[in-house]
Amino acid sequence: MHFLNSINVSASGLTAQRLRIDTIASNIANAETTRAADGRGPYRRQVVVFEARGTGSGKKRSFGNILEGKMQSTGQGVRVKEIRSLSGEEAPFRLAYDPNHPDADAEGYVTYPNVNPVEEMINMISATRSYEANSKVIEATRAMALRALDIGR
User: Fold this and answer.
1) pLDDT of 13 strictly over 70
2) What residues does each domain of the chain span?
């Protein structure tokens, strides 16, 4: 059932990239949000962290276990490990002088989110292309399976 394995791997990629696209869209939508939902500072940029499926924390990650897993399977796909909020130390917030803004500090500066719309659009293009590639793999696998059935007739 190698056809189903390749479809499962690509389907996990579709799911992961869809979540990445949703996260990027949220970042772009909140690029000017100076007060987060919790009321503490500006919105913080979110990033999605992926990991290979089957490499969770349940199994000890020794060289032998990794080698054995690689020899027994050709891959199990990808999953979302976490969605991280980047702090001001990892990606600095943007300061703008606007003393009339309701969120301005005592010196008149407003702290804006650490979201760069240009960078987010580049990430959106990358995620979209990855999504399309996974979709094409599923379509090619389906076509190969149908062709194999035709040969068997």
Assistant:
1) yes
2) 2-31+46-85+115-151
